[in-house]
């Protein structure tokens, strides 16, 4: 079954480009596009998208506010921020609003597709620059990583790589395993740590309390 994707982006050309490569990719289908937050809140809920690609800078209502409102209407829908902004205020504002991932627009189409699949499976994909900002914000005055005795050495290695801000493909390359293998280990990590996202797993590994949405 295809992953149903919607796009909220005010730049016409970029919106069309996103919809195009999503529809061209096997296993993905763009079910709707919107150029404003207001139209997204009206048109997307009946379409039940699995994942929404959300821009932050939209006319009138921002993508961050749209994310918060859309999550109320579609709790099961995962929202992946896709923007040019990489400042801490917008990053944490989007995550606090309910976004499950945060990518920069300069990400390659293949990386965006991988992130869509990742977020659909419950992950929290982020561009490496963004992930490092998030992790660095918790490194100051943070205790040493907690050692979870029920995690395997491989699972601990993956958590260690995640805590450094590496993406799934990068972790697979660094550990000489496939991205699918990393996803499988992540699923087991989530179950063992009783968390639901990559960010929560890293925070627990670093000894910080998980912040629920």
Provide structural commentary:
- With 213 residues, the protein is of the alpha/beta class.
- The protein has a five-stranded parallel sheet with strand order 2-1-3-4-5, with helices on both faces.
- It has two domains: 3-125, 3-Layer(aba) Sandwich (Rossmann fold), CATH 3.40.50.2300; 134-205, Arc Repressor Mutant, subunit A (Orthogonal Bundle), CATH 1.10.10.
- The model is unreliable at 209-213 (pLDDT under 50).
- Helix 3 (63-73) links the parallel strand 3 (51-54) and strand 4.
- The protein is globular and about 45 Å long.
- The chain contains ten helices and five strands, in the order E-H-E-H-E-H-E-H-E-H-H-H-H-H-H.
- It is 50% helix and 13% strand.
> What sequence of helices (H) and strands (E) makes up the elements?
EHEHEHEHEHHHHHH
The CATH homologous superfamily of the largest domain is called Response regulator
Coarse shape: globular
Helix/strand structural class: alpha/beta
Put the structure in a nutshell.
This protein is α/β, with parallel strands linked by helices and 213 residues long.
Q: Could you give the topology of this structure?
A:
Elements: E1 3-8, H1 12-24, E2 28-34, H2 37-43, E3 51-54, H3 63-73, E4 78-83, H4 88-97, E5 101-104, H5 109-120, H6 128-139, H7 153-163, H8 168-175, H9 179-193, H10 198-205
Parallel strand pairs: 1-2, 1-3, 3-4, 4-5
Helix pairs in contact: 2-3, 3-4, 7-9, 7-10, 8-9
């Amino acid at each position: 079954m295809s992953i149903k994707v919607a796009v909220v982006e005010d730049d016409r050309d970029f919106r069309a480009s996103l919809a195009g490569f999503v529809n061209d990719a096997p296993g993905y289908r763009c079910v709707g596009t919107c150029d404003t937050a207001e139209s997204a809140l009206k048109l997307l809920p009946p379409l039940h998208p699995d994942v929404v690609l959300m821009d932050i800078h939209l006319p009138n209502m921002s993508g961050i506010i749209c994310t918060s409102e859309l999550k109320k209407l579609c709790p099961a829908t995962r929202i992946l921020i896709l923007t040019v902004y990489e400042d801490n205020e917008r990053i944490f504002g989007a995550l606090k609003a309910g976004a499950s991932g945060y990518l920069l627009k300069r990400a390659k189409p293949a990386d965006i597709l991988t992130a869509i699949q990742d977020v659909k499976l419950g992950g929290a994909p982020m561009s490496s620059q963004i992930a490092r900002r998030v992790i660095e914000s918790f490194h100051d005055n943070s205790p040493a990583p907690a050692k979870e005795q029920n995690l395997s050495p491989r699972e601990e290695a993956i958590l260690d790589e995640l805590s450094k801000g590496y993406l799934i493909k990068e972790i697979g390359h660094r550990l000489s395993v496939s991205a699918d293998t990393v996803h499988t280990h992540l699923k087991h990590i989530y179950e063992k740590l009783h968390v639901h996202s990559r960010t929560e797993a890293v925070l627990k590994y670093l000894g910080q309390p998980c912040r629920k949405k």
